[in-house]
Amino acid sequence: MNILVVGGGGREHALVWALAASPLAGRIYCAPGNAGTAELAENVPIAATDIEGLVAFARTHDIALVVPGPEAPLVLGLADRLAEAGIRCAGPRAAAARLEGSKIFTKEIAAAAAIPTASYAAFDALAPALAHLARLTPPVVVKADGLAAGKGVVVAASREEAEGAVRAFLEEGRLGAAGRRILIEECLEGEEVSVFALCDGERAVFLGAAQDHKRRDEGDRGPNTGGMGAYAPPPVFGPALAEEVMARIITPALATLARHHTPFVGILFAGLMLTREGPKLLEFNVRFGDPECQALLPRLKSDLLPGLLAACDGELGAFDLRWQDLASLAVVLAARGYPERPETGGTLEGLAAAAAQPGVLLFHGGTARREDGRIIATGGRVLTVTATAPTLAAARERAYAALGALRLEGGFYRRDIGWRALGRL
Questions:
Q1: Among candidates 192, 171, 193, which has minimal Cα distance to 180?
Q2: What architecture (CATH level 2) is domain 327-424?
Q3: How far apart are alpha carbons 17 and 37 in whole angstroms?
Q4: In Å, how far from its chain's centre is CA 415?
Q5: Strand 265-275 and strand 367-369: pairing?
């Protein structure tokens, strides 16, 4: 069957890589793709948010399955338009995609489903928001309700910082429509974990857990980014905790969405805080994470494609996934200036030497191939280097050996990916 993967980052390259290994796959297309996806699929120059363009392409190229990478096309209704055209989409319709499109909607679903989460209050006006903030003791979390490209969450250590975030969102309109409504939330303490489940509207299959590194610099310092690296499985997240999360968070969310006539199909991503009282929900996302996807898929022993089809067809009841008994660690190579103003156009060298390292996979993010064959950086997160090995320490060694073979002028990466887990070993 022909498949269309939507997006152009490292996550989408990992999805193309996994789907290309399936004997069920025919032609694979990626819109818009990058230099890495072009080696396994045919890139097509359609933006991930061009819903009508994507649907038209799927119609004319006999696409049997569309696999969205980012959240924006899902929030814009890609799955709805594909359903009208009779084409499967491994992602939720817009009504269910509000889980990521509106943080207030997520809180409402969590309340209806009795899912443990941080206490909060929602506001759309400055004065009551500031009055509420004055009654709180920092730290607090200020969140924009809508999609804000990773810039909509401020963990404020002081009241001044929190007030600044509230004013930036509600008074200055710094995030536009995304910040017209905000949440002021309790700041949970513990370790963050990303948990993924494959859902068919009623049932869910555990897809694994990973720990991400959002801050740009070592020691979890510097500005927030889309993610500088991840590892899986997290030693802190064992089978018993996975069962608890599926029973207390994932399954109740699915049941509540179904009762609201908004069944969720696709990848449900629960961002959790492991607190002293147990796991609590920070947020839901409606797709794989990046770079968590690059850490998770290389551990998958089963064919991903039948799983996605079973989710689309409501047939996950008798479905299971098998995983390799390996640890995985992924490190992002970023361009100078990321995340504020990444420099583009630099040449990425040493790819063959890096890929030759044992257990190493290279997933392209912001890359393109020039006419002379050179690979250049076109975005902030240029490449994800993923390594698998019997232990996390060995995976880390392999990943950093591969990074040592790469050259990108001004490029940088964190040298402490996995520090939480490796500190325990």
A1: 171
A2: Alpha-Beta Complex (3.90)
A3: 8
A4: 21
A5: unpaired
CB proximity list for 331: less than 8 A, separation 6 or greater = 228, 229, 384, 385, 386, 399, 400, 403, 413, 414, 417
3-state SS of the chain is CEEEEEECCHHHHHHHHHHHCCCCCCCEEEEECCCCHHHCCEECCCCCCCHHHHHHHHHHCCEEEEEECCCHHHHCCHHHHHHHCCCEECCCCHHHHHHHHCHHHHHHHHHHHCCCECCEEEECCHHHHHHHHHCCCCCEEEEECCCCCCCCEEEECCHHHHHHHHHHHHHCCCCHHHHCCEEEEECCCCEEEEEEEEEECCCEEEEEEEEECCEEECCCEEEECCCCEEEECCCCCCHHHHHHHHHHHHHHHHHHHHHCCCCCEEEEEEEEEEECCEEEEEEEECCCCCCHHHHHHHHECCCHHHHHHHHHCCCHHHCCCCECCCEEEEEEEECCCCCCCCCCCCEEECHHHHHCCCCEEEEECCEEECCCCCEEECCCEEEEEEEEECCHHHHHHHHHHHHHCCEECCCECCCCCCHHHHHHC
pTM of the model as a whole: 0.96
Rounded (10°) CA dihedral 171, 177, 181, 185: -90
Instruction: State yes or no: pLDDT of 399 exceeds 90.
Output: yes
Give the residue from 117, 81, 83, 85 showing the smallest Cα distance to 99: 117
Structure tokens given for 387: 């390594």
Q: What is the CATH number of domain 2-93?
A: 3.40.50.20
pLDDT digits (tens, 9 = 90+) for 295-351: 999 999 999 999 999 999 999 998 889 999 999 999 999 999 999 999 999 999 999
Positions of CATH 3.30.1490.20 in the chain: 123-180
Identify whether the C-beta of residue 178 lies closer than 8 Å to the C-beta of residue 407: no
Q: Write the class of the CATH domain 123-180.
A: alpha beta
Token readout for 351 is 């790819």
pLDDT tens across 120-136, in order? Answer: 999 999 999 999 999 99
Provide the residue type at 226 as one letter: G
Copy the structure tokens of residue 239: 């089978």
What values do phi and psi take at 282, rounded to 5?
-90, -45
Enter the CATH code of domain 190-318.
Answer: 3.30.470.20
Q: From CA 47, how far away is CA 401, in angstroms rounded?
A: 35
